[in-house]
Amino acid sequence: MAVFSFPESEVDRILSWTQDRILNGPDPTHGAQSHAELEPVLGGSITEEGMGADAAFALFTETIVPSTRPFGHPTSLSFVASAPNPAALSFDAALGATGIFAGNWDGGAGAIHAENQALRWLADLAGWGDQAGGVFVAGGTLGNLSALHAARSWKDQRAPRQGRPAILCSKEAHSSIAAVARVMDVDLIEVPSDAAGRMSAEAARQAYEPRVFAIVANAGATNSGAVDDIAGLADLAEDHALWLHLDGAYGLAALADPGTRPVFDGIDRAHSFIVDPHKWLFAPYDSCALVYRNAADGANAHGQSGPYLDVVDKTHWNPSDYALHLTRRARGLPLWYALATHGTRAYGKAIAQTVATARAIADGLDAMPRVERILGPQLSVILFRPTELSDAEMDEWAEIHRRSGALLCLPTVWRGEKVFRLCIVNADTSADEVLSVLRSLSRE
Ligand SMILES: Cc1ncc(COP(=O)(O)O)c(C=O)c1O
Question: Per its UniProt record, what Gene3D superfamilies does this chain match (predicted)?
Answer without folding.
Answer: Aspartate Aminotransferase, domain 1 (3.90.1150.10), Type I PLP-dependent aspartate aminotransferase-like (Major domain) (3.40.640.10)
